[in-house]
Amino acid sequence: MKNLAAGLALGLAGCAAWAQDQPSQGPASPERGRALLLQRQDTGCVLCHQIQGLPAGGALGPSLHGLAERSSPAQARERIADARRFNPQTIMPAYLSTEDLHNVAAPYRGQTVLTPQAVDDIVSYLFAKPGGALGATP
Ligand code: HEC
After folding, report:
1. Which architecture does CATH list for 2-126?
2. Residue nearest to atom 39 of ligand 1 (CA)
3. Residue 119 and residue 96 in contact, taking contact as beta carbons nearer than 8 Å
4. Nearest CA to 66 among 52, 46, 76?
5. Percent of the chain whose predicted confidence (pLDDT) is above 70
6. Which atom of ligand 1 sits closest to the CA of residue 83?
7. pLDDT averaged over the chain?
8. Structural domain boundaries in the chain
9. Which of 25, 45, 65, 71 would suit a FRET pair with 52, their CA atoms being 20 to 30 Å apart?
10. What are the residues whose beta carbons fall under 8 Å from the beta carbon of 23, sequence distance 6 or more?
């Protein structure tokens, strides 16, 4: 668990640099969201979640299958931005916060892990219609 946390912190820090290079304007892209969700080293989402339309995910967090039935895109976005708002003890990283983050490598302090655009892209994939162009089946 310690190693996973350290690995995630490193990977997440790496993603900040990557995310900063991306243009952050324009409509949300489920294709980009899918790619982000799949990045084990960067976002780590699939390390903890099973996600519709993506190969085998982890079980540290709940499966995201059927998410659209129990949550709105806005709620999911808030959760991804900073899951501590819902559960102060959560193990899920805060992707759009710079507050009270630990183990952040010096060059990345003060930066969020993901850009707002990247979070919008992820949410647009998670709420894409099942069987749509991306073949995301619940
Ligand atoms: C270290 C493990 C971990 C990582 C990495 C992680 N999550 Fe989570 N996530 C959790 C846990 C655990 C929960 C359950 C609620 C809680 O404990 O905060 C959760 C809850 C959620 C929920 C709410 C699920 C529901 O049933 O309502 C969503 C949506 C979500 N995560 C999306 C993501 C996305 C998108 C990413 C990547 C950007 C991600 N998570 C990365 C552990 C993780």
Report:
1. Orthogonal Bundle (1.10)
2. 45
3. yes
4. 52
5. 75
6. 18
7. 82
8. 2-126
9. 25
10. 117
Q: Is 53 left (phi over 0), alpha (psi -120 to 50) or beta?
A: left
At 82 the pLDDT is: 96
What is this structure's pTM? Answer: 0.81
Residue 40 pLDDT class (50, 70, 90 cuts): confident
Ligand 1 atom nearest residue 58's Cα: 2
Tell me: the pLDDT tens digits for 97-113?
988 777 777 777 788 99
The tokens 């129990």 sit on which residue? 70
Compute the distance from residue 77 Cα to the ligand 1 centre, in Å: 11
Of 18, 46, 48, 125, best ligand 1 pocket probe by most atoms within 8 Å of the beta carbon: 48
Q: Which amino acid is at 91?
A: I
Calculate helix-pair angle for 116-126, 73-81, nearest 10 degrees: 140
CA–centroid distance, 128 to ligand 1, in Å, is 18
